[in-house]
Structure formats: C-alpha cells, structure tokens
Amino acid sequence: MMDPRYGMRCGPDACFVSFIVRSDRPLDKGTLASIGRRALVVAVRPESVKDWRYLLQAMAYAYTYKKPARDWRISVLMYLTNSDDIDEALAAASPIGSEEYVVAVYGEPSEVVEEIAELPRGEPFYPEGVYDPWLITRYALKRLS
Questions:
Q1: Which domain holds residue 69?
Q2: Over 60: is that where the pLDDT of 4 sits?
C-alpha cells in the first residue's frame, strides 16, 4: 500500500517513507540526534542510495535485529554501505555537514506518520537503479550469524 500524501510505502506491519531535504544550513549532529523518538529515522547522503529498496532493506534489518551497532542509525549505515567498520560507514554515508540529505523513516504505520509530522518537508525520494535483493541480505547473514 502506498499513501500518496507522503509517498509512503506500507506493508501489513510497517511503513517506509523517504524524502530528500534541501536546507539553507548544513545538517549538524544535534539536529540529527533529535529526530526519531518513535520510529527508526535515519539521514544519509543521496549518493549512498543507489535504489530505495536498499535503504528500506537496511532499515528493516536494523529495526528488527538492532545490530550490528548499538545505535539503529549506525546499523543502517553499515548495512547500506556493507561495511564492518563504523567509521568507514559514517564516512561513506553520513550527511553531517551537508545541505542536501535523504531522511527515511521506518516503523509501525502510526509511528511513521507521527515522525513525518515533525520532520522537515522534502520531496519524495525513491531512486531506482540496479537492485540485487541479496546484496544486503548476504551482509546481514554474515553479521548476524
């Protein structure tokens, strides 16, 4: 199911939405730390999202397994970049200091809607590229076993 108001994609138990935000000020750590109190909210560089399904998949694994890092958002970056090193994942995908970044939200439908209401508005961001459904799954199996 897709909610046209937000560009939100929903399954039976969870929803996902992705926006690209263009700001006059660079994203800072304080702003990033203040988002996502209910659902999983992550911000990434636009170029780190080759296909929106990779971002969704990375968020679903981080949300479900709470690994490999202690912070869900860091786990998403690790899944998205297929990196075992936190610093490497941050360097490749973190939008800190950028004026353009992607904000994605994943969780229970009501939580996602609540989070969206508090986030800066942007344009729906769902790039489509070559997609290998096993890419992140292989990484997850390696990390979780």
A1: 2-144
A2: no
Neighbours of 36 (CB within 10 A): 21
Q: What are phi and psi of 28, to 5 degrees?
A: -115, 165
DSSP-based three-state secondary structure for 47: helix
Alpha-carbon distance of 84 to 5, in angstroms, equals 37
Looking at residue 105, what is its pLDDT?
A: 96
- Residues of the chain with pLDDT > 70: what percent? 95
- pTM value is 0.89
How many angstroms separate the Cα of 131 from the Cα of each of 26, 55, 80, 138?
30, 11, 13, 14
- Provide the number of structural domains found in the chain: 1
CATH (domain of 80)? 3.30.2380.10
**Phi, then psi, of 66 in degrees rounded to 5:** 55, 30
Helix, coil or strand: residue 19 = strand
For 75, the 3-state DSSP assignment is helix
Q: pLDDT tens-digit profile of 57-84?
A: 999 999 888 777 778 889 999 999 999 9
Q: What is the rounded radius of gyration, in angstroms, for the C-alpha atoms of the chain?
A: 14
Helix extents (H) in the chain: 29-33, 52-65, 72-81, 86-93, 109-118, 134-144
